[in-house]
Amino acid sequence: MSKVGVVIPAWNEEHDIRPVLLTVGPVEWLERIVVIDDGSTDNTLNVARDCAKNYSRMVVEHLPDNQGKAAAMLAGMRALPPEIDTVIFIDADLIGLTADHLLRLYAPIRDRKCDMSVAIFKDGYWRTDLSQRFAPNLNGQRCLSREVAERAIGPLAESGYGVEIGLTLYARRNKWCLQYVSWEGMTHDMKENKLGWYEGFKIRAMMYRQILSTWSREWWQARREQWTALRDLGT
What we know:
Elements lengths: L3 E7 L6 H8 L5 E9 L5 H9 L5 E6 L5 H10 L7 E4 L4 E2 L3 H12 L5 E7 L3 H9 L7 E4 H8 L9 H11 L4 E7 L2 E2 L2 H5 L1 H37 L2
Parallel strand pairs: 1-2, 1-4, 2-3, 6-8
Antiparallel strand pairs: 4-7, 5-9, 6-7
């Protein structure tokens, strides 16, 4: 039987993280819940610690400086106990999260139907639904083996918000079986709502820069591997 841990990276999510943690905390089949405060400058750390008082399986780790989402995910995995063999990643700003959503994400991995499951938001908010339709591989809600997650995310530690697309490209390059799981009624708090249009736009622009940079780097890595394989076949 798999032992499942959840990693929740958080950066300046004081207004959204409490409902997420109060949903995840009571889920009994989760062995450990690790919240990584990624150098937040607001009250995220204190809110997370306050929630963790209610759940013995929830721990909060603090990174003194903001290192980016990929590094926070990696730190979260390394904070899991050794016996945890399956990891679920979720964002700290989800709206509408339920225990059933988590179970649906885990079930394909539990039943060995795929190598990685990815949540797709549906009927939550039109902007989120639209982005999920055209770019489902940017979703941060995923479940996979802890061992392969560490192997895949380790080289992506400096990719920031590009970690999701980097993880997907790694999966495709290694011929993983992916399964997309519908999460009805789910959305997340938009950056523009949390920070205002100007600051939200700046953060979103940074996110897309990191995503494009990671996509470009991983694409070229895949091409180099293909060329090397073809060259070796010809020798």
